[in-house]
Amino acid sequence: MVKSVLVKLANLLGETGLYRFLCPERLPVFMLHRVMEGKSDLAGALPADTLRSYLDYLASRDYHVLSMDDLWRVLDEGDEIPSKSVMFTIDDGFYDHHDVAASVFDEFRFPLNFFVITGLLDRELWPWDDQITYALHHTGIRHADIRLPSGEMYSVNLSADTVRQKAREVRNALKSEHQEHIYDWLRTELYKKLGVEFPTDIPPEYRPMSWDEARSLRARGHGVYPHTCSHRILATLSTQEKHHEINESLRRTKSELGYLPDVFAYPTGRLSDYDSVDIEELKKAGFKMAFNTVSDYVRRGQDHYELARFSLPGNTDKFLQIVNRFEALNDWRTHHSPLPVSSFPSR
Ligand SMILES: [Zn+2]
């Protein structure tokens, strides 16, 4: 209760621009995932009306929503980061990204940047992480011992946790495994052990947007960029596979969209999910910028291949804390503040 009052007070103060003044040269870049109109069964999906309310806040207070070109001018040409500015990205290329998210951004004439898994838009696959969630949702089995690709045994006990928690756990276990053959492994091990029939077509909730729709996004002023072919975690792949994921996804987007994309986003995007070999591959392929998913602001003068992004919060107070640079005060406090840290509401 006290905390929520303090957060509200902190956000009111944020509206005055105080934190933006104290912590300049920081740009919040947000990452969206799924966006749904009305009620949705899809766990973790952001309601379109919540997104609308965020964009309405930005529009009514004259915020700049930057495009990828604006960001490039900040990073490469030293343009100032406008005090009231934000940027938005959305990963993977599902149908709702075109049907819902883009429509909401169009209502405000704000640009949104799409990172698409080319194998998904080509309808060759749907993401391995979603295949795990699907299997756990459809299994009738409460307990199974599965053999991870490394040979290690992993126990899935569904009676102990919710499907969502369990899916996160299995995904995390697989993030540190070699992912070369993850799609085969899902069919031959996970689906088999859980007694789930592998769908013959992409399940409706995981269907992609079409390449035609991706082209229409570009025509409407949005950005579309590659996010690998298969969404496998680059750090776990061989040099040859890394090369393929980066260059083939570039080739597919270029041939479908008719331009040469030069921005990339790492699948799952934690610092441990990509490495220096990947960054070198990106440079060789001609990419100028790449995004991870580390929760932080982008700063002027920083490395162009490790641009941070905040996951777009489902909660307005949290969104405003990031937008108005309240989050950046943590850094500022360490360097400037004579006040004890406890004088500020905790995050
Ligand atoms: Zn992704």
UniProtKB/TrEMBL annotation:
It is found in: Secreted. It comes from the Bacteria. Pfam families: Polysacc_deac_1 (PF01522). Residues 84-347 form the NodB homology domain. Keywords: Signal. Gene3D superfamilies: Glycoside hydrolase/deacetylase. Its main location: secreted. Signal peptide: none annotated. GO terms for cellular component: extracellular region. One of its GO terms (biological process) is carbohydrate metabolic process. GO terms for molecular function: hydrolase activity, acting on carbon-nitrogen (but not peptide) bonds. SUPFAM superfamilies: Glycoside hydrolase/deacetylase. PANTHER family: POLY-BETA-1,6-N-ACETYL-D-GLUCOSAMINE N-DEACETYLASE, PTHR34216. This is NodB homology domain-containing protein.
